[in-house]
Design goal:
Largest sheet: none
Distance between the termini: 56 Å
CATH architecture of one domain: Orthogonal Bundle
Bound molecules: heme C
Order of helices and strands: HHHHH
Helix content: 40-55%
CATH topology of one domain: Cytochrome Bc1 Complex, Chain D, domain 2
Number of strands: 0
CATH class of one domain: Mainly Alpha
Number of helices: 5
């Protein structure tokens, strides 16, 4: 009897593993290298003044990229960064950063 005591625990862990696999972030977008120096590959900002992108809503990130590109938000570095991006690139990047784990509060480089 005693030697089976670990079994219920093991079975309980299986559904969790399946859920975890389903929520795995998408593959890194091809243009991620254009953003990583300032925003980090994981969306955790690397330089002062660059906002953390991790975990922000997809629609918000995509709209921000559109606004930098069409000049509604006048920020030269972001205008330059969005210049070479196609619509698909911007969607892939917004999707990627939205799927990253948010930064803990108080981390340096926040918005
Ligand atoms: C040279 C540094 C630099 C690079 C490279 C860069 N960014 Fe930024 N980004 C910034 C800064 C600084 C801001 C804040 C601008 C502002 O005040 O609106 C910003 C803002 C943003 C925002 C708005 C976030 C918010 O909370 O409103 C998004 C989205 C974003 N960047 C995405 C990207 C993506 C995607 C790339 C790559 C294609 C990229 N950035 C490349 C520096 C950079």
């Amino acid at each position: 009897m005693r030697k089976f005591s670990g079994l219920p625990l093991l079975l309980a862990a299986v559904p969790f593993a399946a859920v975890h696999a389903a929520s795995t972030p998408p593959a890194p977008p091809t243009q991620l290298g254009l953003c990583a120096a300032c925003h980090g590959e994981d969306g955790h900002a690397r330089i002062p003044g660059a906002p953390n992108l991790a975990g922000q809503p997809y629609a918000y990130l995509l709209q921000a990229l559109h606004e930098y590109r069409n000049g509604e938000r006048k920020v030269p570095v972001m205008r330059a960064a969005t210049g070479p991006l196609s619509e698909q690139d911007m969607q892939a990047l917004a999707h990627w950063f939205a799927a990253q784990s948010p930064c803990p509060p108080g981390q340096a480089g926040g918005p």
